[in-house]
Amino acid sequence: MLNDFPLWPQQASTLAHRVDALYIFLLIVTGMMALLVCTLVIVFAARFRNRPGVRAEQIEGSNALEITWSVIPFFVFMVIFAWGAVVYFSQRTPPADATEVYVVAKQWMWKVEHAEGQREINELHVPVGRDVKLIMTSQDVIHSFYIPAFRVKQDVLPGRYTVEWFRATKPGTYHLFCAEYCGTQHSGMVGDIVVLEPAQYEAWINGGSNGPLSATGEKIFAELGCSTCHRTDMQGRGPNLQGVYGKPVELADGRTVTADENYLRECILDPGAKRVKGFQPIMPTFQGLVSEEQVNALVAYIKSISETKPAGGMKTANAGAANQPQSNGSQVQ
Ligand SMILES: [Cu+2]
Fold first, then answer.
1. Are both 262 and 172 inside the same structural domain?
2. Separation of 99 CA from ligand 1 center, angstroms?
3. Coil, strand, or helix at residue 248?
4. pLDDT of the chain along its 333 residues, tens only?
5. Number of folded domains that form the chain
6. Residues whose Cβ atom is located within 5 A of ion ligand 1
7. Are residues 122 and 187 in the same domain?
8. I need a labelling partner for 259 at 20 to 30 A (CA). Which of 37, 64, 72, 321 fits?
9. Structural domain containing residue 228
10. Separation of CA 225 and ligand 1 centre (Å)
11. What is the DSSP letter of 32?
12. What's the CA-to-centroid distance between 214 and ligand 1, angstroms?
């Protein structure tokens, strides 16, 4: 029905109808209020109009009335708040076993890298019925990754990762927009989200020639000399990075932080910001030496050696995620 008279964009994710329901509720509540106020204005204007011989009488307030018009709106607003919070938190909390995709925004295009190694520009292929988590960053200014049909929108910032997730419910092609003014060709920074049936998606994702992103990361890790300090035999000058992802890390300044994607990223680009306790501050910065894509690959690699899976597990974990029990990350919340 909505499609015959499209006041709303298509609903193509698990979140879409939840966002719409809340929105319709807000429209009804505010619409009823507006109607009430307009009606009363007209009725009162007619009823209490200036008439010869009739003098206005001063009223000194009414407790009953004031309590009523405070308490009823309070409960209405609490409903809006609680309902909105529930939707907001599910929109903001990616499921731990989601398929991960890296997105790099730049003026004026979207670059996408799948964990399996597939790369695309201004297109994102995803499977229907599976959770997809986008790990996004920008090479220049602030952009915003907006898929109206999924009811998701998230700013994409330079210098850090932001995350967005969704589960598509209908195969098809949907609009992707940049929703943050980012320069002269901002309006051209658009793309397609292509939602495929699982079998089609499997064929698509395995059709690429690049190796998995984590394998690319492993190569970069060796090429940049990370592996000379970060060894797995505890003999290196830096910490063993196996198992670090998702765990708490004690810092030299006494703080404890969780080793999430942003932490790993910061360690590479600005190691001075958070030094690990018990090590010399000798790690050099790689700012300017690595591209955003290389940082993503390094992060994917460090994550892959942190997952309690047999070697090469990254590939199966992502390609066949739908029917496999997942262990990565879910215990470390
Ligand atoms: Cu943009």
1. no
2. 24
3. strand
4. 555 677 788 899 999 999 999 999 999 999 999 999 999 999 999 998 888 888 878 888 899 999 999 999 999 999 999 999 999 999 999 998 899 999 999 999 999 999 888 899 999 999 999 999 999 999 999 999 999 999 999 999 999 999 999 999 999 999 999 999 999 999 999 999 999 999 999 888 887 777 888 889 999 999 998 988 888 777 778 888 888 898 899 998 889 999 999 999 999 999 988 999 888 888 989 988 999 999 999 999 999 988 754 333 333 333 333 333 333 333 333
5. 2
6. 143, 178, 182, 189
7. yes
8. 321
9. 213-332
10. 34
11. H
12. 27
